[in-house]
Design goal:
Blueprint: H1 4-19, E1 21-22, E2 28-31, E3 39-42, E4 45-55, E5 64-68, E6 87-90, E7 96-103, E8 107-112, E9 121-126, E10 133-134, E11 140-144, E12 148-152, E13 188-194, H2 206-210, E14 217-227, E15 230-238, E16 245-252, E17 256-264, E18 274-275, E19 286-287, H3 307-324, H4 340-355, E20 358-360, E21 386-388, E22 394-396, E23 400-403, E24 421-424, H5 428-437
Parallel strand pairs: 1-3, 10-17
Antiparallel strand pairs: 2-9, 3-8, 4-7, 4-9, 5-6, 5-8, 11-12, 12-15, 13-16, 14-15, 16-17, 18-19, 20-24, 21-22, 23-24
Helix pairs in contact: 3-4, 4-5
Length: 489
């Protein structure tokens, strides 16, 4: 039997042996402030393991996390800032961190409170990358009205774009339908907060954001394939405040974070309703100059859009497909890179973009920052897109055109709109994509940058006026801060 003095010496190790919990791969362990655990045993693995932590509450000072991969023996002291074998500190960024390495003999993860109390956190181990992490892809901003917002999650699943082949070469129907949805989609949620509340300064972790109450009410939530990239979650949030800046995060499976992105609601006087969820135009998710929706609806969808608008778009699409398939698409090649299916897909995007005119407003910071009339045919449009502010700094203006009630709408099949509005021009690249994808015989031509493109398109935003890819004023049609310079679907 050991002497009493030696028992006292080994007591800390015995305590660790009793309370150090073994972490299991793929299981997320939640630890609240009342827990006595301050270290956890990491499993052995021949391959690399990713250890991740996430703070579930806003706390200061921020605790520190240390790990060792020398052993997971219960007799091993907790790794810390000044002791332990092969100790590594896991740095946190916005409340979460991870460390990936080999654990041939297991390891130990420990938390140093750093003077904080009431720590609430999650820890996890995986051999497929960190469970707690920020996704590279951001949520996608559709558009807003004065009190609504259309937001999409990043793509979470793909679907096959079946390329038709000879001899049964058949293109998708003009009245397109959505693909079959995934059978087991991830758990995805949206969190919206007024930017003034400072949510982006709090822990950007799934467990923290999931505990926050989202601003507004989600009136429509569905899976939607808005483009050929894959499946997204689509939310229609209502009950927002006019002329207000908002911040949005998307949380996937409670541990993966996408965002933040920023957007602003329109002014209280803005009266263009949102249009979305059109299977034949899946990329349309923005405000359109239409009368108020019928039957008390707050937005337009495929179920309540006027038949004349729907039938015209589908008819144009059917006619174009008929012309396209007079070419022996399945047997002859007009390009080694694209085929008739690519041509039809890009034409659909362009047709939907010009058929559903987009309403917009200038930035609240620049209320007069719009073009009062279309550019002259000989203008490139760039001069109207740049304004010089204080100190000589240049600001880029959106391709907005003022439309009066007596003006003819871009799409004459849209019902009459009884108030002036600002029209956001389509990006010229939307047209150029059709030109590049389609065979010459269909006769599809886009206006040129240096002659008449700026009269009907936003020119020089994505590509330069000389056609250099992504070398325009902004390089993109819209950014994460809610700026939308020209319309692209």
């Amino acid at each position: 039997m050991l002497p009493h003095s030696l028992l006292i010496f080994f007591l800390p190790a015995l305590v660790f042996a009793q309370f150090r919990q073994q972490l299991t791969i793929y299981q997320v362990l939640s630890v609240n402030g009342a827990s006595s655990s301050r270290s956890w045993a990491l499993p052995q693995s021949e391959g690399a393991l990713s250890v991740s932590v996430a703070l579930c509450s806003s706390i200061s000072p921020v605790p520190r996390f240390f790990l060792t991969n020398s052993s997971n023996s219960n007799n091993l002291d907790d790794p810390g800032p000044s002791f332990g074998v092969d100790v590594f500190e896991m740095s946190l960024q916005f409340g979460q961190g991870n460390w990936t390495g080999s654990f041939p003999n297991g390891g130990v993860l420990a938390v140093d409170s750093n003077g904080a109390s009431g720590i609430s956190l999650e820890v996890a181990v995986s051999d497929r990358g960190p469970i707690h992490r920020s996704l590279n892809d951001l949520p996608f901003f559709g558009d807003t009205s004065s009190n609504q917002a259309l937001i999409f999650s990043p793509v979470f699943d793909t679907f096959d774009l079946a390329s038709p082949e000879f001899p049964n070469y058949k293109l998708p129907a003009a009245n397109l339908s959505q693909p079959s949805p995934p059978s087991n989609p991830p758990n995805i949620s949206l969190v919206i907060s007024a930017t003034s509340d400072g949510l982006e300064n709090e822990p950007r972790t799934g467990c923290f954001l999931s505990s926050q109450r989202s601003t507004g009410a989600t009136s429509n939530e569905t899976l939607w394939a808005k483009d050929d990239l894959g499946w997204r979650k689509q939310w229609l949030s209502e009950g927002l405040t006019p002329s207000t800046n908002y911040t949005a995060f998307v949380v996937q499976d409670r541990t993966k974070i996408s965002g933040p992105i920023y957007f602003a609601t329109k002014s209280a006087a803005f009266n263009c309703p949102l249009v979305h969820s059109l299977p034949y135009c899946p990329g349309v998710a923005y405000s359109v100059p239409l009368p108020a929706p019928p039957n008390g609806d707050t937005t337009y969808t495929a179920t309540n859009l006027p038949n004349k608008v729907t039938n015209t778009v589908i008819s144009y699409m059917a006619n174009f497909t008929t012309v396209l398939t007079t070419f022996a698409c399945g047997r002859d090649w007009y390009s080694p890179l694209v085929g008739c299916d690519d041509c039809q897909r890009e034409y659909r995007k362009w047709l939907c973009s010009i058929s559903f005119t987009r309403c917009a407003e200038p930035s609240p910071e620049n209320p007069d920052a719009f073009t009062s009339m279309p550019a002259a045919p000989t203008e490139t449009g760039l001069a109207a897109s740049i304004v010089t502010g204080a100190g000589g700094a240049q600001k880029v203006l959106s391709a907005l055109i003022a439309v009066q009630t007596q003006d003819t709408a871009r799409n004459e099949n849209l019902p009459a709109f009884d108030s002036p509005y600002l029209q956001l021009q389509p990006c010229l690249e939307q047209c150029n994509q059709v030109d590049r994808a389609c065979p010459p015989f269909v006769g599809f031509k886009c206006p040129t940058n240096n002659f008449n493109a700026a009269a009907s398109y936003g020119v020089g935003y994505i590509d330069s006026a000389d056609g250099d890819k992504a070398k325009g004023l902004t390089g993109v049609a819209q950014d994460k801060y809610g700026n939308v310079w020209c319309q692209m679907i």
